[in-house]
Amino acid sequence: MGYDLAHDSFQGTNEHHWGTIVNMTGMQGIGSRLASARANKQVSQVKAAAMLEISDKTYKNYELEKREIPLSTAIVFCEAFEVDLEWLVGLQANAGEKSVALVSETIEALFSEAQERKLSLSPNRAAKIGTYIFRNSTQKGTSPQAEAGPIFDMLNDT
């Protein structure tokens, strides 16, 4: 049991490959996550298969969990459908929970930075700055804490 190089997939146990732990065998719900991501993009199974350059039947079997999806195909799927590999394979609860955590971190970073600088922010100004911090964090993949300081620095320069 382990990584099957010939089929570019994992068999049986948790394995480590390119820094990501993947357990494809016995994974409950990977098929429904494939279907959900596909539906969110309003793409048919036939079109999804074409995007992944695989047969319709093969793709359908992935969604039905009758066949394991190879890691290389899972990566291409995640890029095409804009989902995290960790979410797809069930290591992350869902993207919604990740967003909620990021909002919470943004609020904390915003008020910590304002308090540290002894600034009083109106709710409207806090919302605008928080939105900017959140957008920068998501676009750059940085933490809200890393974004808050430079944004407040920029505001002090104006």
UniProtKB/TrEMBL annotation:
GO molecular function terms listed in the Swiss-Prot or TrEMBL record: DNA binding
CDD domains tied to this protein: HTH_XRE (cd00093)
Domain HTH cro/C1-type: 34-88
Pfam families named in the record: HTH_19 (PF12844)
Top-level taxon: Bacteria
InterPro entries, per database record: Cro/C1-type_HTH (IPR001387), Lambda_DNA-bd_dom_sf (IPR010982)
Name of this chain's protein: Helix-turn-helix transcriptional regulator
Organism: Sandaracinobacter neustonicus
